Amino acid sequence: MEFLDLKTQQKRIRKPLEKRINKILDHGAYIMGPEVFELEEKLADYCGVKHAISCSSGTDALLIPLMAWGIGPGDAVFTTPFTYVATAEVISILGATPIFVDVYESTFNIDCEKLETEINKVINDGKLKPKAIIPVDLFGLPARYRLIDKIAKKYNLKVIEDAAQSFGGSIRDKKVGVFGDVAATSFYPAKPLGCYGDGGAIFTNDDDLAEECKAIRIHGTKKDKYNSEMIGLNGRLDSIQAAVLLEKLSIFDEELEMRNQVNSYYREYLNNAQYHPRDYQSAHALFSIVLGSNDKRDNIVYRLSKNKIPSVVYYKFPIHLMEAFRYLGYNKGYLPVSEKLSDTIVSLPMHPYLTEKDIDCILQTIQNK
User: Fold this and answer.
1) What is this structure's pTM?
2) Is 75 a member of any domain?
3) Are 192 and 256 within one domain?
4) Taking residues 129-153, what's their average pLDDT?
């Protein structure tokens, strides 16, 4: 059994994908070729935003807007510790300070009440200037953007939607990519929409921000590629990765529905999974359950492994307790919900091609004592 089945998916798109790749070999524009611009148009149309700016990774998709806003030393950026390290990493790379906010026990997304508390702590302390919030749409579920935007306006903060896992998700009739001032997604192969290398995209309705992001991804150049107008980076997308994404996008909505069916089947028998609020549609990047203790998790992981069923712990270490972020001075116990989740959560196989027979095998393994 596969934790993520890319082989079955590839069989569906192999012939049209090979045709696209052959076209790239013929025209020779291997980086930022016509496929990249075709992809950007289709991504923007899919999300309902004015601008989709492709880039080399989901990490760069987070980093580039922060660079465009000039965020750096002395600035505070609020985010969650219960996510992949890249979310906090981009803040530290620029010399700004990540301020970690605990998450809801139910959705695992940033707790809005605690967010406002942490903002006020920074303001009252007076050492840092609050600049931005990076909520994370964990495991594909969008965060509470109505409340987050309300808080952001109150304190004049920018919002970057970390949609690395949630492309295809939605809140009511609005798709992921439209929330906050800007959104960032990842096309890492394991994502719901993933390429065969690395890639990412930035989404915004802000014309000026879009132009800045486009320049930053090509070494800060706007008119002349040999005359940088600002500090940038090499954040361009390869044409072959764009070709892969174009073909995957053609079957994406169907795969989302298949993921939703897998999720629904799991939930008929498991009541300890991430809570999905009404009118929130997850992209189902992962299906994770929370056990009562670390020992219970270890026991289930062992039983699954013994039956040749893969599982992964996302995330074994909350970011605030990682060695790399020790300089921030967080102690164990400060963010208890995130810490408890890290000790007790495990992710089960989740992809569009899981069968009911596969899921039954997983469920029997979990439920047999």
Assistant:
1) 0.96
2) yes
3) no
4) 98
